[in-house]
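Progress note, sequence design subtask.
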């Protein structure tokens, strides 16, 4: 009776095979940091691949570019609330001064789970400021200030964004002012601002287990609320993604990364895969 040949593996070969199997089936590690940037009022094809936004277009090539991403509604403010809390909270306007008492939200979830959260807004006059507007800052683009259980210390000026990225909160939002978010100024100014302000972080994130999510609140009411959205950083496979996503999907993705329960409409969404 002929016996089957016995395969003998050297230690080195066994190691190579094991590493290959791990790489092939591994789930990316939980990110150390996620930075979310929200810009304003542009349809997908007015940004991705446009000659006046070369830097953002380059990010779409470096990361996962969502070709089928949408805002929830118009005007701006409800979309920010959807991204932060899983609901528009019944808001249908851009009026200043909404207050939500004890209403679940991403910032509170992160803090309660032992993580950290901060929002960095350009031109916010001081930490915890609750006014409606100052220079290029507007409260309607700052959702966390409306939730009474998010600490005032989490509502910060962009001046406080750490130069040492290791000191970033677990999850942070960066909200440009009305010029640099494409609302009031030419697109190329916002594109250059993003590269100056976060280009180094993005390069660092790709090598240090961190992510950047760039999205827009809404389109300009000409393309069914079709918006640019790009996710890039460590463990993200580059390329176009065609699945339909929205702000609830983005919230669900962050919640899933940190084992947080879904809030509101995010429970009806599947998280984005990094690969």
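Output:
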């Amino acid at each position: 009776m002929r016996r089957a040949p016995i395969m003998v593996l050297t230690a080195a070969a066994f190691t190579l095979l094991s590493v290959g199997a791990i790489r092939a089936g591994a789930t990316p590690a939980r990110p150390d940091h996620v930075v979310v940037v929200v810009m304003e009022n542009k349809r997908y094809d007015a940004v991705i691949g446009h000659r006046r936004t070369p830097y953002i277009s380059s990010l779409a090539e470096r990361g996962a570019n969502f070709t089928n991403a949408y805002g929830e509604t118009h005007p701006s403010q409800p979309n920010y609330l959807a991204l932060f809390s899983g609901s528009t909270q019944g808001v249908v306007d851009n009026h200043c001064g909404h207050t939500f008492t004890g209403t679940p939200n991403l910032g509170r979830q992160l803090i309660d789970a032992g993580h950290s959260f901060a929002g960095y807004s350009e031109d916010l006059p001081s930490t915890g400021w609750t006014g409606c507007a100052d220079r290029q800052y507007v409260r309607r683009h700052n959702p966390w200030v409306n939730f009474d259980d998010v600490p005032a210390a989490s509502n910060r000026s962009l001046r406080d964004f750490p130069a040492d990225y290791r000191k970033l909160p677990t999850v942070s939002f960066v909200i440009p002012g009305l010029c640099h978010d494409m609302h009031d100024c030419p697109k190329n100014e916002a594109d250059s601002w993003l590269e100056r302000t976060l280009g180094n972080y993005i390069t660092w994130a790709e090598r240090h287990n961190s992510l950047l999510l760039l999205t827009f609140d809404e389109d300009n009411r000409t393309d069914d609320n079709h918006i640019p959205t790009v996710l890039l950083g460590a463990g993200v496979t580059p390329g176009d993604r065609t699945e339909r996503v929205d702000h609830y999907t983005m919230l669900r993705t962050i919640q899933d990364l940190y084992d947080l329960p879904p809030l509101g409409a995010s429970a009806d969404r599947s998280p984005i895969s990094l690969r």
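The CA atoms of residues 69 and 245 lie 5 Å apart. Work on this subtask will continue into the next period as scheduled.
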